[in-house]
Amino acid sequence: MQTKAFSELFPLFNTADSETLECLLSIAVEHEYPPDRAVLMEDAWGNAVYFLVSGWVKVRRLYAGDAATLAILGRGDFFGEMAILDESPRSTDVIALSEVRLLSVSADRFIQTLFKDPQLHHRLLQLMVRRLRQTNFRLQKRHQPSAVKLANILVSLAENYGQATQIGTQIYNIPIKDLADVTDISLQDTAKIMDKLNSKGWVKIEPERQVLYLTNLKQLTHLAEQD
Q1: How far apart are CA 143 and CA 82, in angstroms?
Q2: What is the mean pLDDT of residues 69-94?
Q3: Which end of the chain lies in a sparser environment, N or C, as judged by fewer CB atoms within 10 Å?
Q4: Other beta carbons less than 10 A from residue 47's beta carbon
């Protein structure tokens, strides 16, 4: 991958200088995973940062033998940075939802790069704070109606990872169980709301291609913004 394409794909690197990008790409290791494969396992020591070149993954945590999805990540995002920054075991698993292609950079080399490029260091902090604010926003929405919370998640996925098409904004067809976990509503309510959004023409699901189109993003955004 060329340095320009790399910086355009990953917002983390849009302020990094060309020398930093060339260095990272020269040491990055490429990985490919099929759907349902564990990319990272809970309690594994953090030894690398992973950059999602294509595909979708879910971040999950195990509770008494049951798995709960905490977040959905798509193309252009990254994960694994928390474990290497505080030098502690990972607290979550990362599982491939679709076919996934990743680039990894070892913990030692990534930390060295952060020290050499203050702009990259600052950008990483900005994106980590942004994630924290998104989590806080979701907590503030926890008492909102289920439809509002689900619309908020769909709009967020579209804004962060969606691709514009003639049909609408395209995202991965996230499994209902994972949508329910991330939204913090029941599986039954999630299925009912998705069916209703589909019948209203606000979303279109193509399960055979594992594609979900947000065909009326304006109305979904309006629903997500309701108090």
Answers
A1: 29
A2: 80
A3: C
A4: 14
Q: What is the CA radius of gyration of the chain?
A: 18
- Output the CA torsion sign for 35, 38, 40, 43: positive
Q: Which sequence spans correspond to the domains of the chain? A: 3-139, 143-224
How many CB atoms neighbour CB 124 within 10 A? 19
> Does 143-224 match 3-139 at the fold level?
no
Q: Residues of the chain with pLDDT > 70: what percent?
A: 93
Rounded to the nearest integer, the mean pLDDT of the chain is 88
Among 56, 92, 77, 41, CA closest to 175: 56
CATH of segment(s) 3-139? 2.60.120.10
**Among the listed residues 78, 69, 73, 34, the one whose alpha carbon sits nearest the alpha carbon of residue 57:** 73
Strand order in the sheet with 100-106: 29-33, 100-106, 48-54, 78-79
- For domain 143-224, say whether CATH 1.50.40.10 is its number: no
SS3 79: strand
The alpha carbon torsion through 144, 145, 147, 148 (nearest 10 deg) reads: -30
CB 103 within 8 A of CB 29: yes
- Map residue 185 onto helix, strand or coil: coil
Q: Could you count the other beta carbons within 10 Å of the beta carbon of residue 3?
A: 18
DSSP state for residue 192 in the 8-state scheme? H
Q: What are 104-137's pLDDT values in tens digits?
A: 998 888 888 888 888 888 888 888 888 888 777 7
**Residue 155: alpha-carbon gap to chain centroid:** 13
